[in-house]
Design goal:
Elements lengths: L11 E3 L9 E4 L11 H6 L4 E4 L9 E3 L3 H12 L8 E6 L4 H14 L4 E4 L3 E4 L2 E4 L9 H13 L4 E5 L2 H5 L10 E4 L7 H4 L2 H13 L14 E5 L5 H7 L3 E6 L6 E8 L4 E7 L2 E7 L5 H17 L3 H10 L8 E2 L7 E5 L4 H14 L4 E5 L8 H13 L2 E4 L9 H14 L8 E3 L3 H11 L5 E5 L6 E4 L2 E4 L2 H13 L18
Parallel strand pairs: 1-2, 2-3, 3-4, 5-9, 5-10, 6-9, 10-11, 11-12, 12-13, 17-21, 18-19, 18-21, 19-20
Antiparallel strand pairs: 6-7, 7-8, 13-14, 14-15, 16-17, 22-23
Helix pairs in contact: 2-4, 3-9, 3-10, 9-10, 11-12, 12-13, 14-15
Length: about 500
């Protein structure tokens, strides 16, 4: 039997006992470690109350619940006075393209004159204020999400777009967010280390769409909408599991919103969008065919879900000129293209390389790694795709964490060789990421394309349990400056820079 709720005045919420302030309620969640073992530390730091799932008797008020994660979401919403009730909430999930799709929707809502805000893995925008959401962040913690939403309400914002990861959904970080529109980009091979299986990963994504049909006490209610990708393997599953109104988008003309006449160049992406009652040209500086899908998803959410005029939506799509670390060009005057992109999944890497082929008549040179303590199956897959699609592949570090970097590179090298890669001819293993990027630009000929893939906007890299300052864009600028013998930033240093590859 769950315990009754005792009287206790709390002034904040914490899930990390080290960050408890006097007056906080400490919620003992159990993600990778059991939070109950830290309850004594939380109380010593001044916790006014504790919530957990174990039967306990404490000197402070204690509430036993069935699911501490779900409870955290709902008490966070209550603590911040149910901000989602005052907002039209749009959630965007998927393996790839979430941040770009969030930004497209945000630009469309702004073009429509709506007071909009957004939370992505790159940043949060509240009015004219832009906030960094972290180094290796997924969806923020439940109380952080609700704190952001309260700030949006207080700032007069009416619509919020939230990038919603599988981790965030599975860990109930968006419980209490009460989404009105759910959007999926795609669901591919990713995060199986966390979820354990493909089915569990898919179930986590499904939570967003199952929640759409739950009644919500909204100040400005709209008919809920699920925006599904007809081209993706998730389509039939989500279509069957979503009780809310649906719209599908895709390149297949059987979709309700679809694209034709796609023209993808090194500088611009153009296509014709077709939908219920409209046919109009779309233009975006976010290149690559996958951005046809991302912009179609945004178009569907805005036009079908919110009733925004299609011409206004097209204007918003055109207004998105770039996102940090997403197909971001680095130009110091070199005679070849240098691009940094966040592609860190097999599908995203393949899509980036395919886009790269259309961006240049020269060679494609790809620098990337695969993270430690994450889905190991994707290591070989990524190297295999690069061996197939890039002219030169340079395998390097990407957050090895506590795994051996040498072992990770060995696994990736096996994937490259499976597809005919030849070591030190078509593929190279250079553990230090800075040295790898420097080597890549040194190999480039006029008209080539050098890709640094996998880190994008991120500002750190994890070796062991330490986050070291790192930015692929800074590293690329440093390598180009050295090549061109011009002023530029210094190359960030990592443990591998001193020869330690463990």
């Amino acid at each position: 039997m769950l315990s009754p709720v005792p009287a206790a005045e709390v002034t904040g919420i914490a899930v990390d006992s080290r960050k408890v302030n006097p007056g906080d309620v400490f919620v003992a969640t159990s993600d990778r470690v059991d939070g109950h073992q830290f309850i004594p530390d939380a109380i010593r730091n001044g916790a006014a109350a504790v919530i957990g799932t174990h039967p306990l008797s404490l000197k402070v008020p204690y509430v036993q619940v069935a699911d501490a994660r779900a409870a955290l979401g709902y008490i966070s919403a209550a603590f911040y006075r149910q901000p989602a009730n005052y907002l039209t909430m749009i959630g965007v999930t998927g393996s790839d393209g979430k941040t770009t799709t969030v930004n497209y929707i945000y630009k469309i809502l702004k073009a429509a004159g709506l007071k909009a805000g957004m939370i992505s893995t790159v940043n949060a925008i509240i009015g004219d204020e832009e906030l960094d959401t972290g180094l290796h962040v997924t969806t923020p913690e439940a109380f952080e999400v609700q704190a952001y939403l309260r700030r949006y309400v207080d700032a007069g914002i009416t619509h919020v777009i939230l990038e919603t990861t599988s981790h965030g959904l599975a860990a109930r970080r968006v419980s209490g967010a009460d989404f009105d529109i759910g959007v999926v980009t795609n669901i591919t091979h990713e995060h199986l280390d966390y979820h354990g299986s493909w089915d569990a990963y898919l179930r986590a994504k499904t939570l967003l769409f199952e929640g759409l049909s739950v009644p919500k006490p909204k100040l400005r209610p709209i008919e809920p909408l699920a925006v599904l990708n007809m081209d993706d393997q998730s389509y039939e599953h989500l279509q069957a599991r979503t009780a809310a109104r649906q719209v599908c988008y895709g390149l297949d003309r059987r979709a309700e919103v679809w694209a034709s006449d796609i023209q993808n160049t090194a500088r611009i992406l153009r296509y014709t969008a077709h939908g219920p009652g409209f046919e109009l040209p779309i233009e975006t500086q976010m290149i690559g065919n996958y951005n046809v899908s991302n912009s179609l998803a945004a178009l569907s959410a805005a036009v079908i879900g919110l009733g925004i005029d299609p011409e206004v939506a097209a204007k918003g799509i055109r207004a998105l000129t770039g996102i940090p670390g997403r197909m971001e060009r680095i130009d110091l005057g070199q005679d070849f293209l240098a691009v940094v992109d966040f592609a860190h999944t097999p599908f995203a890497l393949r899509s980036a390389l395919e886009a790269g082929r259309k961006m240049t008549a020269g060679r494609v040179i790809a620098v990337f790694g695969s993270a430690g303590l994450r889905d190991k199956q994707k290591r070989r897959m990524m190297a295999e795709f690069s061996a197939q699609l890039a002219d030169l592949t340079i395998l390097t570090a990407e957050d090895p964490r506590t795994e051996s970097l040498d072992d990770i590179l060995t696994e990736m090298a096996a994937g490259a060789e499976e597809q005919g890669g030849q070591r030190d001819k078509t593929y190279f293993c250079i553990p230090d990421r800075g040295a790898a990027i420097r080597f890549a630009v040194q190999q480039a000929r006029p008209g080539d394309l050098v890709f640094a893939l996998g880190k994008g906007h991120e500002q750190s890299m994890c070796f062991g349990e330490t986050e070291y300052p790192w930015d692929d864009r800074t590293a690329m600028r440093s390598a180009l400056a050295d090549l061109l013998e011009v002023d530029g930033p210094g190359m960030p240093l990592l443990p591998t820079s001193q020869g330690d590859t463990k």
